[in-house]
Amino acid sequence: MDTQAIQIMTYVLIGGTALFFLVRYLGSKPKQCEVCGMDTKDLYNDASGKLVRLCRTHLIERWKSDVLSSSHKMVVIEPDVEDQNHAMGYLYGSVEQLGEWQYGKEAQRKMSDYLLSIDGKKCEECNMTATTAFIKKGDYSIPLMEKITATPTYLCTPCVVKKVGPILFASQHIFYEGVYAPTNEDGVYHSQEY
Ligand SMILES: [Zn+2]
Ligand SMILES: [Zn+2]
Questions:
Q1: How far is the CA of 150 from the centre of ligand 1 (A)?
Q2: In this predicted structure, what is the pLDDT of residue 56?
Q3: Left (φ > 0), alpha (ψ -120 to 50) or beta: where does 49 sit?
Q4: 87-107, pLDDT tens digit by residue?
Q5: How many angstroms is it from 44 CA to the middle of ligand 2?
Q6: The pLDDT value given to residue 7
Q7: Counting ligands in written order, which one lies closest to the CA of residue 62?
Q8: Ligand 2: centre distance to CA 153 (Å)
Q9: How many angstroms does the Cα of residue 126 sit away from the middle of ligand 2?
Q10: Hey, where are the domains in the chain?
């Protein structure tokens, strides 16, 4: 190999490395909240699946209002915001959707049973009609759906929002995967499993 070829290869290598870091830098740059323009990396996944860039305040505000306006039954698994892997998204999906996300039959059956168990229950906080089955973080050791055996706390939608909103708000992690809006069907709120 002659000197010129080595020189060209060196330039290509340096150029490639510089480009790699530039792309990484640009990729990690915060974007602006669509409501207030503040820099943020958090994302909201609206009911149509569109990702909306929102600062933490507007993210939680939007999530609360979308959940409060839903009339569907939900299993709400408390988000584990201390676990690095489980804190990047707070996903909502129907039992069928869970299957598409590769959750096994056992996990789907368990969530379906929890959803059915909500019927006829009263909110344990305010005695209104319960619409959600809330699973506390401390009530399961391994956050795998099929391993959850806890008896849920039955809550109405405003009471569950009051519990979960502040936990999501205080999370130290960035919601790269997005906090999800509830879709137009009964479903399960859960942190992502890996
Ligand atoms: Zn904002
Ligand atoms: Zn209530």
A1: 36
A2: 97
A3: left
A4: 689 999 999 999 999 999 999
A5: 25
A6: 78
A7: 1
A8: 11
A9: 4
A10: 1-29, 33-191
